[in-house]
Amino acid sequence: MSSGISSDWPLWEIFVRSQHGLAHKHVGSLHAPDARMAINNARDVYTRRNEGVSIWVVRSSDISASDPQDKEEMFEPAGNKIYRHPTFFPMPEEVGNI
Amino acid sequence: MQKALFQYALRLGDNALILSQRLSQWCGKGPALEEDMALTNVALDLLGQARLWLDYAGELEGAGRDQDSLAFLRAPHEYYNLLLVEQPNGHYGDTLARQWYFDVWHSLLLQRLAGSAEPRIAAIAEKSEKEARYHLRRSSDLVIRLGDGSELSRSRMQQSVDDLWMFTGEMFVGDDVDAVLVAEGIAPAPESLRAPWLETVGEVLREATLTAPAPDAWMQKGGKQGVHGEHLGHLLTEMQWLQRSYPGAQW
């Protein structure tokens, strides 16, 4: 398979909502010339086994992401303050996993 | 009556089966990963439809043939698909034009068959129609993109549309089998699909900035009666090879 055509197309991130009531979840990415075709392609690539009720597509270049180099300052302060985690409360059995 | 129904179910099954086999030949060779997946998905949809129709045909015949024996043990002249679907893949524009002509017709036909007086036909048609509607959405979109695309894609798409035009007339020519089922309210008259087909095809071609071929052009026919071109034999040779070489093989 040649990647000649699709590599000229922009990259899209695909989000699929698996059921009503749940949030859209990132499932992967694909190439397409525009949004409409990205949705068609996403339907064929990612939703063929009853996975979804809704598809969102976003151009990958429109996503702003945190810098992996900022990992320490962004995320570690939360990790070392165990009192921020609600693990000290006795939970009744009947509640199950929350 | 039973015989006409059997023949009609075979025609519907054979259209789906042969087009599915053609599309499968693109597997792994599509012009882009996304297109490759989409085409093979269409092929799988059609294969599923073929199985439903051929199972039904086997039951109607009552001679003990199931979907597998109908698919793998019939000779070319016992196949009743449209000539359109057996045409070679050619380049991507050819595959697309063939698919699109078929999808417009298929979608119209299945909508009508969903209201058939024969419940089994109505049920299969209703299930298949949703798939056909998606196939049509996809193929129309691509015809418009390639037609209204670059100079090169436009000229190729025009050529494909022109080349395959002569295989479209057969879709709208009824014969004795059709007449029996039309009288019973089981199937629509093939002729009645022609006007809406021409209208939809015309709209898409206009949007694609392509020129519509002449509706009264000379048309090929014969597929529905088992008279095929040279291509079908080669296709079946490949498709049926395993069952012909190792009769009854299963896995």
Set down the secondary structure blueprint.
The complex is a heterodimer of chains A (98) and B (251).
Chain A: E1 11-17, E2 25-31, H1 35-46, E3 54-59, H2 71-79
Antiparallel strand pairs in A: 1-2, 1-3
Chain B: H1 2-24, H2 33-61, H3 67-72, H4 83-86, H5 92-113, H6 119-147, H7 151-164, H8 176-183, H9 194-207, H10 230-245
Helix pairs in contact in B: 1-2, 1-8, 2-6, 5-6, 5-7, 5-9
How would you describe this protein?
The complex is a heterodimer of chains A (98) and B (251). In chain A, strands 2-1-3 form a three-stranded antiparallel sheet, covered by helices on one side. Chain A has 98 residues and is of the alpha+beta class. In chain A, 21% of the residues lie in helices and 20% in strands. The mean pLDDT of chain A is 84. The longest helix of chain A is centred in the middle third of the chain and has 12 residues, at 35-46. Chain A has helices at residues 35-46, 71-79; strands at 11-17, 25-31, 54-59. By secondary structure, chain B is mostly helical. Chain B has helices at 2-24, 33-61, 67-72, 83-86, 92-113, 119-147, 151-164, 176-183, 194-207, 230-245. In chain B, helix 1 packs across helix 8 and helix 2 (33-61) runs antiparallel to helix 6.
Provide a concise account of the structure shown.
The complex is a heterodimer of chains A (98) and B (251). With 98 residues, chain A is an alpha+beta fold. Chain A contains 2 helices and 3 strands; from the N terminus they run ββαβα.
Name the descriptors.
heterodimer, A: 98 residues, alpha+beta, three-stranded antiparallel sheet, 2 helices, 3 strands, flat, B: 251 residues, mainly alpha, Ferritin, 0% strand, globular
Tell me the CATH architecture of chain B.
Up-down Bundle
- How many helical stretches of chain A? 2
Largest interface: A-B, 19 and 17 residues
- Helix/strand class of chain B: mainly alpha
Which outline of chain A best applies? flat
Separation, N- and C-terminal Cα atoms of chain B: 36 Å
The Cα radius of gyration of chain A reads 20 Å
Instruction: Count helical runs of chain B.
Output: 10
Describe the main β-sheet of chain A briefly: 3 strands, antiparallel
Major sheet description of chain B: none
CATH C-level label of chain B: Mainly Alpha
The CA-CA distance between the termini of chain A, in Å, is: 46 Å
In total, how many domains does the architecture of chain B comprise?
1
Multimeric organization:
heterodimer
CATH superfamily of chain B: Ferritin, core subunit, four-helix bundle
Number of strands of chain A: 3
Low-confidence stretches of chain A: none
Spatial order of the strands forming the largest sheet of chain A: 2-1-3
What is the typical, i.e. mean, pLDDT of chain A? Answer: 84
